[in-house]
Specification:
Organism: Qingshengfaniella alkalisoli
Oligomer: single chain
Number of strands: 12
Subcellular location: Cell membrane
GO molecular function: ATP binding; ATP hydrolysis activity
Order of helices and strands: EEEHEEHEHHHEHEHEEHHEE
Low-confidence stretches: none
Largest sheet: 6 strands, mixed
CATH class: Alpha Beta
Keywords: ATP-binding, Cell membrane, Ion transport, Iron, Iron transport, Membrane, Nucleotide-binding, Transport
Mean pLDDT: 91
Shape: globular
Family: Belongs to the ABC transporter superfamily.
């Protein structure tokens, strides 16, 4: 069994069956990118893996156990989630926000220790937000806020990271910078990463493993070269395209017709 796995997962939201019968696993210590059209169940899948959505049937496993049978604090020590939509309390500084990532490691009577402060410092440094640590989160640009929230997740120091559209609000250079950061974190710390991305070419650039969803079902999975094909893009997105080799990385590149 993988560290993160689903078996026969069925999720209903608002009277709609979002995930009908989904079984998959995230390769350990690899970056998995989940792609697919809007409303195909990508975010719901991440939220169910993170114990935020309870399935109608089937099981989401974390570390060989049903994630919904585990205490919230235990899950938060193993798995960090960066959701699509985030909202910080008014007036909260960047540093105070990131410090919240240490909450699962603190007891009710135990203040932050030097190791906790170092984890916060390292997280801020890794996303380039140390110089903004005293600014209110509300005063930041959209891209800066996204980095601050990513730092919070990194400060948790979990073995698994689930990132739901982490490049939202970022311009292209900062998208590439953030994805290269995730790639480096994966390489340096062997964390298991799963993220939802909409840009197929960037997904191919960063992914070790790809999962393509449509209608809540897995259409294709495997290496980017196995998933990002002309037939695959037609099946997943109904997109007519040519797939060529990225001249810089050698990864698949989609050229729409």
């Amino acid at each position: 069994m993988s560290l993160v796995e689903t078996r026969n997962l069925r999720v209903d939201l608002g009277g709609r069956n979002v995930l009908p019968d989904l079984s998959l696993m995230l390769p350990e210590h690899k970056i998995t990118v989940i792609v697919g059209p809007n409303a195909c169940g990508k975010s719901t899948l991440l939220r169910t893996m993170a114990r935020l959505v309870k399935p109608a049937a089937g099981t989401a496993y974390l570390d060989d156990k049903d994630v919904h049978d585990q205490p919230s604090r235990d899950v938060a020590r193993k798995l960090g989630l960066l959701p699509q939509q985030t909202l910080a309390p008014e007036g909260l500084s960047v540093r105070r926000l990131v410090e919240r990532g240490r909450t699962p490691h603190l007891g009710p009577l135990r203040p932050m220790r030097e190791s906790d402060r170092k984890a916060v410092d390292d997280a801020l440094d890794s996303v380039g937000m140390r110089h903004n640590e005293d600014r209110p989160v509300a005063a930041l640009s959209g891209g800066q806020r996204q980095r601050a929230w990513l730092a919070l997740v990194l400060a948790q120091q979990t073995d698994v990271l689930l990132l739901d559209e982490p490049t939202t609000y970022l311009d292209l250079p900062h998208q590439i910078e953030l994805l290269d950061l995730v790639k480096k974190l994966n390489h340096d710390t062997c964390r298991t990463v799963a993220m939802v991305l909409h840009d197929i070419n960037l997904a191919s650039r960063v992914a070790d493993h790809m999962i393509a969803l449509r209608g809540g079902a897995v259409v294709a999975q495997g290496s980017p070269s196995n998933v990002v094909t002309e037939a695959g893009m037609k099946a997943v997105f109904d997109l007519d395209c040519r797939v060529i080799s990225d001249p810089c990385r050698g990864t698949p590149m989609v050229v729409p017709l």
